[in-house]
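Checklist before submission:
- one chain only
- standard amino acids only
- sequence pasted in full

Submission:
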Amino acid sequence: MSTPHRTPPRWVRWTLGIIAALVPCVVWGVTTATAERSLGPHEATYEVTTDGLVVVDLGPLGTLQIESPLPLGLGADVTVQEIPADLTAVGQADTLEGLSQDLEDYLRFFGGPQETIGSVARALVVDALRRTGFAILVVAAGGAGLYALLGAARRRELTAVTAPRTFEITASVVLVGLVAASLSSSDPASSRREGQPASAVFAGTPLEGARITGRLAGVVDTYGSLVLDFYRENEDFYAEANDNLVTAWDRRQTIQRLNAAAVARGERTDGERAVATIAPDDGPTAESSDESTDAATDEATDDATAAGTPTSPEPAAEEDLVTLVVISDLHCNVGMAPLIRTVVEGSGASVVLNAGDTTMNGTAVESFCVDAFAGAIPNGVTTVVADGNHDSVETSAQERGHGQVVLDGEVVEIEGIRILGDRDPLETRLAAAAQPAREETPEEYAARLAETACTEQEDGDGIDLLMIHTPRMGNDAIESGCVPNQISGHMHTRSGPERMGGGVRYVSGSTAGAVKDQLRVGPLKGTAEMTVLRFDPQQRRILDWQLVQVGTDASATVWPRLAWPAPADPAPAAEE
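Returned file contents:
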């Protein structure tokens, strides 16, 4: 005689019932999640699988397979778009031209795949939650409808039968859901791994252990080592440059502390004029002022055109100052991302000013560039962006997705600094002429910014800084006397700070070391620059600026702080 099942308490039955309903919803939501994201220069569709593999389907070229970084044995199928089903449909000339245009994007991807992986993982999680929520709503609606249709009498009959078997029913539903999840992959894991040794080409890279199938295997074996040699050269260069930058920054901090101590003792010193430069194989010794560093400082001052004189620290006001780091014209050179973080952390900056051209073409697939630079900014630091002519509305949306403040023609206040700016009125695409990004002409754009600045001044608040990508677009505003400071990029060559109109203009050099007609990836082709500003929110003025340079030989130089020129009074209007 079998022992009768003991009926669990009502709250236990409800809890187990909810679990039995949730498990299939979660399984369905997770295993059907998809995302549209970039893979190198291509758009790609990512779909969750349960075989523990990430399989990149390149159509007739074959597949690339790597072990999945996802938990619980989850993997992903990646279908790369824009690749034809039959390679004979593509002419050789077109294919080679496309490959040459895509080379930079492939190299950027292999230089920082973790950014793409992180972006895709976040998108899949969001889609899985959305699908799970939808499934829960459907199950809840169906359950509520069934509850109402059964009626009280029929519900009591079913409860009498099922209540004693609550545990068995719940376990069965959960088991079936998990089994269904394990079988949901289109191909068994064993069949996808079988007979596919890992490619030796990827050893020592983020793709180590990857297996290649189809025609792609021959291409990778033949040419992959050349690309990876370039990749390793790129990684080694920026790692060395970052090490040199860390040492140069420490040296500069030492010089500034020694100078501050001398000033506190009432001694006169030229210590602040010392230049902290670290070249390859340099030792970490502090450098005192001598003829070579004096000459270098004088050269920087000449280049900066009326940049002012070296300034000494003001310990009493130090805690009240706002430190900002200016970057510009990154052009997707993600190798500079760690160096940006080094300068932001070393300077203690709370604001990063990005003067635009983060990308090359402002496309959706360049989101990995935006992701890489956003990931370089420490938590708690605000990034303010004035998008450039190589960016787009898509770029702005990607930046907003990272919580960055994208200027759009309105005044924003960050850390007590009132900033006006907007994205560039023109859009430039590679191999195409610059086209207006909107109906507004560049002249109308410049006039609107000047009008906004002067309106703010008439209202009593005014602005502290105008940040736009193209310098000349600020001519009307700065000559109006309503703009005390302007920060721009675009030229790839630093100029200023120089007095102009009623304010001071500073044009940042390229933080990517960008040089015309040269690849933006790989070791630097030109000197990369960042600038540290210190702003006094009580006096509402920039106190000083400090140039940081990284050379083509991986050397790093941190220049002394130089006084920011006082804005000039605007020229009086001519009398009629």
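Reviewer check: Confidence is low (pLDDT under 50) at residues 84-102, 185-191, 283-316.
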